[in-house]
Specification:
The protein is an alpha+beta fold. It contains seven helices and five strands. Helix 1 runs antiparallel to helix 5. This is Glutathione S-transferase.
């Protein structure tokens, strides 16, 4: 069985959504990122991945896969009939990779990561100055589209939905971008996305303060 190492409401939420949308069973191991410990045992998470970051997907043969862009595409390819990623060779497959890269680099690493992990105003000044321009890109793209790629939900949508969810607690109101606000509302209306978020929010509330 697949195993996913995750932290509640971290970027690994997109991998949970992908697994559920694909109809794949998996074991989920919660990680306390602050302490790098695994909630259902006494192990050091860095023994699972030296990067110390989620997601980590343990494949059925025991190999481990990291980085959201890789994990999400792997999950999608396990159930190609679900259409969670365009098939290899299709130009839309490269559009999917384009969006996964943009979300990971320009929203997650450039804004969300420093916002939640850095504390001083000097470190946060540049990310906050860039975020308006950054969000204008997916906003313009989604002005007349339901999904990021093609005509159906893909793992890129799982990734962007997660990122948009975290913008408000990071101090950004996406109501400034009506296409993004409408898009997030549509994503949250999907039963699987709604269930995944509810599961992780409940787990997040239960995390001890010193392990969050």
């Amino acid at each position: 069985m697949l195993q996913l190492y995750f932290s509640p409401m971290a970027c690994s939420l997109a991998s949970r959504i992908a697994l559920m949308e694909a109809g794949l069973d998996a074991r989920y191991h919660q990680v306390h990122l602050a302490t790098k410990t695994i909630a259902d045992g006494d192990g050091d998470f860095r023994d699972i991945s030296s990067k110390g970051a989620v997601p980590v997907l343990v494949l059925e043969n025991g190999e481990r896969l990291t980085e959201s862009a890789a994990v999400l595409q792997y999950i999608a390819d396990l159930r190609p009939e679900r259409g969670l990623a365009p098939r290899p060779g299709d130009i839309d497959r490269y559009r999917l990779q384009e969006w996964l890269s943009f979300i990971g680099a320009e929203i997650h690493k450039a804004f969300l990561f420093p916002t939640f992990w850095y504390k001083d105003d000097g470190s946060l000044a540049k990310p906050r100055a860039r975020i308006t321009q950054t969000l204008s890109v997916p906003s313009a793209h989604l002005a007349d589209r339901e999904f990021l790629v093609g005509q159906r939900f893909t793992v890129a949508d799982a990734h962007l939905a997660w990122a948009l969810l975290l913008l408000r607690p990071a101090g950004v109101d996406i109501a400034q971008w009506p296409p993004l606000a409408g898009y997030l509302e549509r994503m949250q209306a999907r039963p699987v996305v709604r269930e995944a978020i509810a599961t992780e929010m409940a787990l997040r509330r239960a995390i001890p303060a010193n392990a969050a």
